[in-house]
Amino acid sequence: DIYQVGETVSLKDTQIYDANGISDLSRLDFWLLREGGNWENIGDAYSFTQPSWSTGSNSNWASFNQSLSGLGAGNYTLYAFAYDQSQAISNSHQTSFKINGSPEIQFKFTKNTYTSSEIVRVVDDVARVFDPNGANDIAEVKFWLKTNNGDWQYISSQYGFNPSAEDSRWASFPLNFSGSGVGNYTLQAIAYDQSGAASHPLIREFQVTAAAANNDVQTPIENWQNQNTLPNIPANHWNASFINRNAGNVADYSSYDFSRPAATADLGLQGSGDGRIQLYRNFGQGSPASGVQSDYYAMLAWTPTNLQAGKLYKVTTKSDDGSYFLLKNTQTGEWRSIVNGQDGGDFRDRSATEPAKTIFFKVPQSSDYDFHAEYYEKTGDSVIDTTLEEAKPFQDSVNESREWTSSFFWWDRNQNNKPPVNFHENRSNIIGTVNLGSNRRSDGKQGINFDWGTAAPRNDVRLPDNNFAIRAYTWADFDGSPYKFRVKGDDGFQILAKNQSTDQWYYITPQNQWTQAYDSPTEITYTLPAGRYDLHFHYFEERGNAHFDLSWEEVTSGSPSGSGNPGNFPVPFLQDNPTQKNPLRGFKDPRKGEGYVSQYPGSKYSHGDRMNFYAIDINEPGNLDRGKPVYAMRDGIVEEIIDQNPDTGRAGGKPSNMVLIKHENGYYSRYLHLQQNFNSTIKLQKAQRVTVGQKIGLVGNSGVSDGYHLHVQVDKGDWISQPFEIEGLFSFS
User: Fold this and answer.
1) Phi and psi for 325 in degrees, rounded to 5?
2) Alpha-carbon span 161 to 169, nearest angstrom
């Protein structure tokens, strides 16, 4: 029942019975459903053999073989139906199976033993991950760590993978670890694909030993005025000064004075040559240098770098306890925090094992800068772990038809306390694009609802917790009737929509301004012309709590069970759970009186299975209906058009030409076996609003068909037909 991607799913020596003997068997139809998709006819079997044991009373049994290949990862359901020579249909047989994607992760450490002052590195500073469906199918890689005597602890996840140019099934991502105290460690990594299939765990072991007590620390040198001068430290190293503090002032950055430090130090190279500026030191629970307390001290570390105006940079920090970052322009002498106020640092009195904080910034002019990291230690372990690098935009996988494509942007709070409304036009400020999930909320409404509190969005360490703006959109269909939008958010938002056919923009909230509604939602009734739209929300967060709540639904007058007409849809309303006693009603004759019902619901010829049971076939004798018009049975929106397949019927082995129309309450009507190239004259468009009686196709003989006719059915988009009646043509009563 479980296969790997690339394996063939085989039905071998499977038996089938016919009371009239195996010569009476005509064919087997196979239908396949992938979880989250639609039913598909995947072919027929016509060859049957009599097994050696099929003699005497068993002589009516036959065997057949069938195989499926080229399937992607996922959960599948397979249906099979048998037909005899009279086209009588058997009961259905169902089986389920799963195909695993088998992602794989690879890396190894540069050595087995590190000191507590070192970063635990992997070879080339990167890990590699593989997915047979392509690297874009990889959802995340999770990491857990444990000591010899401890439990597994989740430490981080990696998201966003760019396929290799040499082989798109492979991707690389940067990887190293820091903040581990003295001990023996085991690291576990597991990769997951989009279906949730997991790789085999990759296990790696390493050891961390204590660093020398005064590692890299040099004695301060005083000049004739008793002022401290630093030792001769290379330009590409970290300079550090330490001062002793107390419990009352250790976190008060404004009172720091490093002009007479208790100790100075060379903390080593500023990076590994890959363009990143990195500082990592694990001082444990002891003193970082002679003359410095083991608790309640502060450190100032700085190193030179060149920063370019217009580029977006980021600082990632997970230091224990607190950190703050500044820049000094070495040409002008100007000092500046990378971000105004507390957002320029991390003041959480945190552990180094907690998720990192990421801070984004730009510089006003290209220049050489001294990058300063101020750090304080209260009690317990002491770890400084900081990286400065250019921010590279990332792109996660999103299905925009049913999920929110959400691009995050930095904005400069030094300029204003809110971003400009056209913030998204400056592409140099983009941080990355993430998937914010389904456009169908947990309450069943269309929209989105999130509450990230004061943390980074979704606790994603690639994103900032403050000073960001979002431009998000998803597909949405509107039928030309009024809709009510309910929205609230902290701090500000805009709601707007772009028609996919005309590129016309519509502003649901006022244009060129931010709307604010923190506690109570704003309700807006707005009518969009019928069609398919990119429905946008723009949102910004200055600081503090980040939450947003958006939904929309059609404005209805009356209710399905009352006397009113719900929205613009014709009565009667399409109710849930229809039955033969209470079928879906309100559908008009798609041939307008031309033709008769040639196959009713439940007909043994081809309407005996679950998908076609309630379908209705309409035709005229002698193929007189060939090329004649087909009309919409009900108002709706065109969801799908297929017209390229030949009118050669079952013998052609091609799918059916079709028009799919969306109605209210999640129902669709299907019009099958249409004539090849019918839309060259009909000229339907996806997302087009059609009215009952409007010409939408021409009668044909495409797909699994034995002559020119029209097949119509109503379903929920899953091909499983629902009981419905056609006024003046067919009724269950």
Assistant:
1) -130, 135
2) 10
Question: Over the stretch 360-384, which tens digit does the pLDDT of each residue have?
Answer: 999 989 999 999 999 999 998 888 8
Residue-level pLDDT at 251: 84
586 token code pair:
């309100």
Cβ pair 311, 259 in contact under 8 A: no
Peptide bond into 570 cis (omega under 30): no
Q: Which two tokens stand for residue 391?
A: 């921010």
Distance CA 559, CA 555 (A): 11
Domains and CATH numbers, the chain: 2-100 (2.60.40.10), 104-209 (2.60.40.2550), 217-390 (2.60.120), 394-554 (2.60.120.380), 584-726 (2.70.70.10)
Longest CA–CA separation in the chain, Å: 116
State residue 539 phi and psi, 5-degree precision: -145, 145
Q: Please answer whether residues 684 and 695 qualify as being in contact, where contact means their C-beta atoms are separated by less than 8 angstroms.
A: no
Q: Dihedral angle at the C-alpha atoms of 375, 379, 381, 387, nearest 10 degrees?
A: -20
Quote the strand ranges of 166-296, DSSP E: 170-177, 183-193, 202-209, 217-218, 221-222, 228-229, 237-244, 263-269, 277-284
Could you write out the DSSP letters of every residue in 495-544? Answer: EEEEETTT--EEESSPTTS-EEEEEEEEEEEEEPPSEEEEEEEEEEE-SS
Q: How many CB atoms lie within 10 A of CB 85?
A: 12
Q: Considering Cα of 430, then 433, then 434, then 435, what sign does the dihedral take?
A: positive
Residue 227 scores a pLDDT above 50: no
| pLDDT tier for residue 568 given thresholds of 50, 70 and 90 | very low
Q: Considering the chain, what is the average pLDDT of its residues?
A: 83
Amino acid identity for residue 462 in this structure: R
pLDDT at 406 over 70: yes
